Amino acid sequence: MTDIAEETPEQAGGETGAAIEALYLEERRFDPPPSFREQALVTDRSLYEQAEADWVGFWEAQARELDWFEPWEKALEWELPFAKWFVGGKLNVSHNCLDRHVAAGLGSRIAYYFEGEPGDRRTITYADLLADVQRFANVLQSLGVRRGDRVGIYMPMIPELPVAMLACARIGAAHSVVFGGFSPDALRDRMNDAEARVLVTADGGWRRGSVVHLKGNVDAALTEAPCVEHVVVVRRTGDEGGGPAPMVPGRDHWWHELMAAAEPSCDAAHLDSEELLYLLYTSGTTAKPKGIMHTTGGYLTHVASTHRYVFDLHPERDVYWCAADIGWVTGHSYIVYGPLANGATSVLYEGTPDFPDKDRWWSIIERYGVTTLYCAPTAIRTFMKWGSEYPGRHDLSSLKLLGSVGEPINPEAWMWYQEHIGGGRCPVVDTWWQTETGGIMISPLPGVTTCKPGSATFALPGIGAEVVDDAGRPVERGGGYLTLTRPWPGMLRGIYGDPERYRDTYWSRFEGRYFAGDGAKVDDDGYLWLLGRVDDVMNVSGHRVSTAEVESALVDHPAVAEAAVVGARDDTTGQAVVAFVTLKSGEEKSTERGEALRGHVAARIGPIARPKAVIFTDELPKTRSGKIMRRLLKDVADGRDLGDTTTLADPAVVEEIRKLAETRATEE
Ligand code: WT7
To answer: DSSP letters along 96-113, please?
Structure first.
C-alpha cells in the first residue's frame, strides 16, 4: 500500500509538472492520411485565413448555413463579459434540426440508429423525429409550459431524450438535462435552481444488465422541489427490475398516453437569437453547481460548424457516433444539436461498453458501419486494459475518423486508438472545450493539421486562444494558463441567476480574457498541450467533479468533522477522488466507516463522485491562515497505489503528512 508508484507515461498524460517532459519525448508526427485528404471537406488553410482576416465575418458566414426566419441586424454585441450574437435575428433550433431537412426531401434519412443495452433496436428517421417532436411540444404546452419556462429532463439514453430537448426548443422553453447518474439530491437542487415546472423522465434505464430506477429518484427529489408541477414518464424498463415506481395521481403522466392524445402538428416558434436554449449544471470550485446558460443562434452556429469541420462530416454517407451521454455537454452539442443541424446519421447507444461483453462498442461499429467515433480517453484506456483482442473480433474498416474529448489524452492512448481502432488510416482529433464554451475550441482540422499524439494542436478558425503567465502576459513558448481572447458564438451567456459569479469565475483572473481553469503549454512548433485543471476541480473519466462539492457531502455525514478532497492520478479514469477525513472525537475509524462514507458521497451527488479511497487522518495539513493544503495531500495521494478500496492510512503516512504540513506551514 505504501509503495511509491513510479510515474508511468500513461499517468503523466493527465498531469502537469513532470508530465510535460514525458510529452516532449513524443516526437511522432501524423500528417492527414492521403486517402483521407482526397475526400476531406477542408484541405488547406483557407478557413483559418478567412477567420484571421475577419473573425466576426467568419462566424457570420457560418451562421448563414442555418435557416433564419429573420436576419440579424448586428453580428456581435460585446460588453465584456456579456456577449450577444446575431442580434435581432430570429430562428428556431428544432426547425433547423428537423423541418428544413424534411422540407429538403431528406425525411427518410436516418437521424438515429438507436440500440438499447438489452439489444433492442430502433431506426428513427428525420421525419419520425419531427413528428414526435411536434407532438411532444404540444404535450408540454398542454401541461402549461410556455416560452421562457424551464423543463427538467432526467432520462436514460433513449430516443425520447432528444425528442424532449427538441420539443422544448420548438416552443421556446429551456431544458435543463440532469445526467441519469446523478442522485435525487443533485436532481432536486438543479430543479429548484432552474425553477423547472415540468420534469421528463423514464421509469428506468438499463445499465450493465440492471435497471436504474430513475422514477424512484425523481419521486425522492420532488419531495423537496415544489416548483415541479408535472412529471412525464417514458415506459422504458416496464415490469423489469421490480417494476416502475407508482404514479402520483395528478402529477405523473405516461409519455405514451399523452403522446397518443396530442395534436400532431406544432409550428416552430420564431425565437430570438439570444433566447435561452438550455441550462446545464456543472461543478465549479464551490459546493454549488453552476447553471451554465446557452442561447440559440450563436450556439447552434458554433456546434453545427465545428461538427462539420472537425469531424469532416459528409452527412449523406457518414455514420457518426459520439459515445458520450446526452446528460453532459458533449451529448448536447455533438449527439443532439450539431449532428441534427447538419442532417447527420448518428448512433445512439444506451448502455455500457462491457455488456454483455467487452466488445459491445466494436460490434456496434461493425453493425452500423460507423465512420466516425468520438469518445473520452478514459474509455480508450479502459479498452487498452481489456486488450486489442476485443476490437480485433470485429470489422472496423468503416471507420474514417476518430475523436477524443474530456481530458488530456496521453500519447500512448492516442497511439493505441490510432492503431487498434483506426487501423492506422484514420486521423485522430483531440478536441478541447468545456461546458462553458458550448462547442469545440481547440482541435486539429483532420484534412489540414499535422497531429502530434497528445496535443489538441491549435485553436479552430475564429477562436482566439492564448497561454499566459501569472501576470497575464502571453507565453510564446512554455507553460501557463489557457485563456480565450475574444468572444465566440457558442460561449456561455452567464450563470443562471448569478451574473456576478459569472464575471468573477471566468473574466476576473486575467483582464479582458476568459480563463478556462486549465493549464497548457505551447511547444516549439506552437502546438498546444492541455495539462488539466489548475483549480480545485477534478476530472474523473472526463467528467468534472468539484472538490468542494465532495467535501461538503462528506462533512454533512454525522461522523465527519472535516474533510479534504483531492484528485489523485489514476491510470484509467485520469483522476480519482481521494478523501482525507477527520472524524469527530469518539467516532471509530474502520473499513466499514470508510465504505459508508464512500456510499454517502455517491448517494449525495452520484456514483461519479464516489471517492476511490477514504484516508482517515487525525488532522488535516493547513496553512497558518487555516487553508487546507490540498497540493500536499495530492502529492501524498499520487505517491500511493490506493487500490479500489477504502484504505486506512498507515501511521507512517499520516505522520509524514503532519511533518510535511508543519514544515510547509512555517515556510508560508
Ligand atoms: C474540462 C471541461 C468538453 C466536454 C467534456 C468535458 C477538460 C476537455 C479536453 C481535452 C484536455 C480536456 C478540461 C476542461 N478537457 N477536453 N481535449 N484535453 N482536457 O466538459 O465537464 O465542462 O469539462 O475538461 O480540463 O476544462 P466539462
So the answer is: IIIIHHIIIIITTSEEEE
C-beta 410 within 6 A of ligand 1:
no
Q: How far is the CA of 252 from the centre of ligand 1 (A)?
A: 36
User: Whose grid coordinates read 427538467?
Assistant: 152
In single-letter form, the type of residue at position 290 comes to: K
Q: Supply the pLDDT for residue 19.
A: 53
The C-alpha cell at 343 is 442532417
Q: How confident is the model at residue 23 (pLDDT cuts 50, 70, 90)?
A: low
Best residue for ligand 1 mutational test, from 407, 457, 533, 608 (most atoms within 8 Å of Cβ): 407
Residue 536 CA to ligand 1 center (angstroms) comes to 14
pLDDT for position 21: 53
Q: Which residue intervals of 262-354 are DSSP H helices?
A: 297-310, 329-331, 338-341
Check pLDDT > 70 for residue 126.
Answer: yes
Strand 372-375 relative to strand 319-322, pairing = parallel
CA dist., res. 202 & res. 132, Å (int)? 16
CATH level 2 (architecture), domain 4-16+542-667: 2-Layer Sandwich (3.30)
Output the pTM of the full model. 0.90
Q: Which atom in ligand 1 lies closest to the alpha carbon of residue 516?
A: 26
- Measured CA to CA, the distance from residue 50 to residue 65 in angstroms comes to 16
Q: What is the Cα 546 distance to its own chain's centre? A: 14
Q: Whose CA is nearest to atom 7 of ligand 1?
A: 407
Ligand 1 midpoint to CA 561 (Å): 33
Separation of CA 381 from chain center: 18
Identify the helix (H) or strand (E) that includes residue 153: strand 150-154
What pLDDT is stored for residue 665 in this prediction?
41
Q: What residues have CB less than 8 Å from 120, skipping those under 6 apart? A: none
Reported confidence tier of residue 619, pLDDT bands at 50, 70, 90: confident
